[in-house]
Amino acid sequence: MPITNGDVASNGVPLNRDLEKLDWRNALEVLKEYKSRDGLDVHDLLDSKKNGALTYNDFLIQPGYIGFAASEVALDSPITKRISLKTPLLSSPMDTVTEENMAIHMALLGGLGVIHHNCSAEDQADMVRKVKRYENGFISEPLVLSQKTTVAEAKELKDKWGFGGFPVTETGQLKSKLIGIVTTRDIQFHPQPEDLVTEVMSKDLITAPAGTTLLEANEVLRKSRKGKLPIVDKDGNLVSLLSRSDLLKNLNYPLASKLPHSKQLIAAAAIGTRPDDKNRLQKLVEAGLDIVILDSSQGNSLYQIEMVKYIKQTYPDLDVIAGNVVTREQAANLIAAGADGLRIGMGSGSACITQEVMAVGRPQAAAVFSVSSFAARFGVPCIADGGIQNVGHIVKGLAMGASTVMMGGLLAGTTESPGTSFVNREGKLVKAYRGMGSIDAMEDKKAGGGGKDSKASNAGTARYFSEGDRLLVAQGVSGSVLDRGSVTKFVPYLIAGLQHSLQDIGSKSLVELREDVGRGKVRFELRSVSAQAEGNVHGLDSFDKKLYS
Ligand code: IMP
Questions:
Q1: Is 352 annotated in some ligand binding site?
Q2: Does a structural domain hold residue 93?
Q3: Which H or E element spans position 90?
Q4: Average pLDDT for residues 177-192, to the nearest whole number?
Q5: Is 147 exposed, middle or buried (0-12, 13-18, 19+ CB in 10 A)?
Q6: For a disulfide at 288, which of 106, 132, 155, 489, Cβ 3.0-4.6 Å?
Q7: Helix ranges restricted to H, 146-271
Q8: What does the pLDDT read at residue 101?
Q9: Model confidence over 295-326: pLDDT tens digits?
Q10: pLDDT band, very low/low/confident/very high, at 246 (cuts 50, 70, 90)
Q11: Nearest residue CA, atom 8 of ligand 1?
Q12: Which reactions appear under catalytic activity for this entry (predicted)?
């Protein structure tokens, strides 16, 4: 006999004390008698009249049913109307986060790095070109020696870069005739440092022709037992180099972000909305750009709407992501202008003081839900940008409807971000990180000629001031973040964490997660201040928070 609601008190305690009569086999039947599911659906959660505007730490996702392995969880997600990635992770267009090295590695790992524009158009186009020219495993710009290089100089280069095995060409440049290769063994114990490398280099070379695949090159390297394999064109000119040590790790990027039918990595870069940015964009497009992001802290502007229209008309093959926005109304203007994607966030960035100084912005979970549920009606994917401090925040951003998340501070400490690590006053290894609206970034000479007076040409930080501004008003700070090692370890950790989280939630893919949230299957819980304290490590005298190994 199924138990009816009448047999239990409102708190579920059976009124009938005869336990014999309670049939555990009926648990699923009894569950159906409840009028609503446990927890809150996303609309109740984000009802700002009842709960205020929430951000990631204000709520939790309830666990669902695990019926599959974490490794089966698919993380494919669109970044624009036309382009999808295998990993929903992006790095911010900031000068302490994304230059070509980060862009290449984020793309290899299935995400995307958006190249910053706090530099000349030429430098930015050069970075885009390097991403597009990057071939998995092939060093497209190797260090090349000239015939006039001495053994001492070669030794110095080896010490500086930490690797040996330099090709020597007629002109000392790439695309010139290869005449030899200098290995560490050739120079290590050579008694006359002033001798030219041509006297010690190996001239008996094993090379491979341009167009050789990684697998073929691997085979040649294996048979030759050499450390380096120069790739040459039909005239014997050096075009790239393959290193045995790089090879094995580089064979393994099955998630790499590429357009269908293309072998090249996807390249994305940011620009502003000034007239000059049209010239910049032209250079980026010539370099092979696939996605452009209009970088503005308040994207709902005449300038941005016109820029979106201009880009769609001038470069129909280029996808344009507009933003930043945090409300439906802002989003509607950009969607109607033709944006292929939106970037959401205002004031949530870790190095950001916009909310404090400008009094505008929106807590990130509320912003992501509001904008992405509206944009979804037009098939426009959204990026949850800023405020991501851990894997849990990534999951929450995606559960709120974003297709991808963008990170600045979380990736700034990795090896692939620009700059080098240094030891701070407390003896910790750190890397510089600064908001693009910090005084430091706005005054940076890299941006086009020097200091305050040149701010009009200070491209990358244009999102934080207007043409006629006499005074720089900071919207960001400048500081440092802890060193995190390579993204080649950190991003796989984020991916694995994401898969485990979706497994706990019971959604087998990001598509399923968004659907399950929409139809109320995925449930949420508000988190009081003490619930937040409970959810963090507490009561320990000391602990070591190692996140992955
Ligand atoms: P994070 O991942 O929390 O560090 O946030 C990164 C995001 O902060 C970037 O993608 C930008 O949208 C935003 N941002 C970058 N610089 C500034 C700034 O100076 N003020 C406000 N927001 C910024």
A1: yes
A2: yes
A3: strand 89-91
A4: 89
A5: middle
A6: 132
A7: 151-161, 184-188, 197-200, 214-224, 244-250
A8: 93
A9: 999 999 999 999 999 999 999 999 999 999 99
A10: low
A11: 349
A12: IMP + NAD(+) + H2O = XMP + NADH + H(+)
Residue 290: give its domain's CATH number: 3.20.20.70
Q: Give the residue-averaged pLDDT of 461-480.
A: 75
Number of structural domains (the chain) is: 2
Taking the C-alpha atoms of 136, 137, 142 and 147 in order, what is their torsion angle to the nearest 10 degrees? -130
Any atom of ligand 1 within 6 Å of the Cβ of 350: yes
pLDDT (0 to 100) of residue 447: 44
Please report the atom of ligand 1 found closest to the CA of residue 409: 4
107, pLDDT greater than 90: yes
Domain endpoint, select from 214, 242, 270: 242
Residue 349 marked in a binding site: yes
Q: Which domain holds residue 319?
A: 72-134+257-535
- From atom 13 of ligand 1, which residue's Cα is the shortest distance away? 349
Q: Say if 544 falls within a structural domain.
A: no
Does 387 sit in the ligand 1 pocket, CB within 6 Å?
yes
Q: Ligand 1 pocket test: pick from 56, 352, 433 the residue with the most ligand atoms within 8 Å of its Cβ.
A: 352
Which tens digit of pLDDT belongs to each residue from 138-182? 787 788 999 999 999 998 888 877 677 899 999 999 999 999 999
Report whether residue 92 contacts ligand 1, using a CB cutoff of 6 Å: yes
Question: Considering all CA atoms of the chain, what is the largest pairwise distance in Å, rounded to the nearest integer?
Answer: 98
> Mean pLDDT: which of 53-67, 125-139, 211-225, 259-273 is highest?
53-67
Residue nearest to atom 10 of ligand 1 (CA): 92
Q: Are 464 and 297 in contact (CB under 8 A)?
A: yes
Same domain (yes/no): 330, 399? yes
| 473 and 336 housed in the same domain | yes
Residue of 102, 114, 294, 297 to test ligand 1 pocket, by largest number of atoms within 8 Å of CB = 297
- Predicted confidence (pLDDT) at residue 3 exceeds the cutoff of 90: no
Say what the pLDDT of residue 288 is: 95
Provide the mean pLDDT of the chain. 89
What's the DSSP call for residue 494?
A: H
Q: Is there a single domain that holds both residue 98 and residue 186?
A: no
Please indicate whether residue 460, judged by its CB atom, sits closer than 6 Å to ligand 1: no
422 and 326 within one domain: yes
User: 347 among the known binding-site residues?
Assistant: yes
Instruction: Judge whether 352 counts as a catalytic residue.
Output: yes
In a domain, 517, yes or no: yes
pTM: 0.83
- Percent of the chain at pLDDT above 90? 66
Does residue 519 lie in a domain region?
A: yes
Closest residue by Cα to atom 22, ligand 1, is 352
Q: Where are the alpha helices (DSSP H) in 33-120?
A: 42-45, 48-51, 100-108
Q: Which residues make beta-bridge pairs with 112?
A: 90
Question: Does residue 311 sit in the same domain as residue 220?
Answer: no
Q: Give 194-208 pLDDT, tens digit per residue.
A: 999 999 998 888 999
Nearest Cα residue to atom 15 of ligand 1:
435
Taking the CA of residue 92 as reference, the ligand 1 atom at the shortest distance is 10
Last residue of a domain, one of 242, 274, 295: 242
CATH assignment of the domain containing 203: 3.10.580.10
Same domain assignment for residues 305 and 412: yes
Q: Decide if 119 is catalytic.
A: no
Do 485 and 527 belong to one domain? yes
CB 133 within 8 A of CB 140: yes
- Check whether residue 367 and residue 484 sit in a common domain: yes
Catalytic residue among 463, 484, 514, 523: 463
pLDDT at 120 over 70: yes
Residue 47 marked in a binding site: no
- Give which of 140, 77, 192, 182 is closest to 507, Cα–Cα: 77
Name the one residue in this structure whose structure tokens are 């030759």: 224
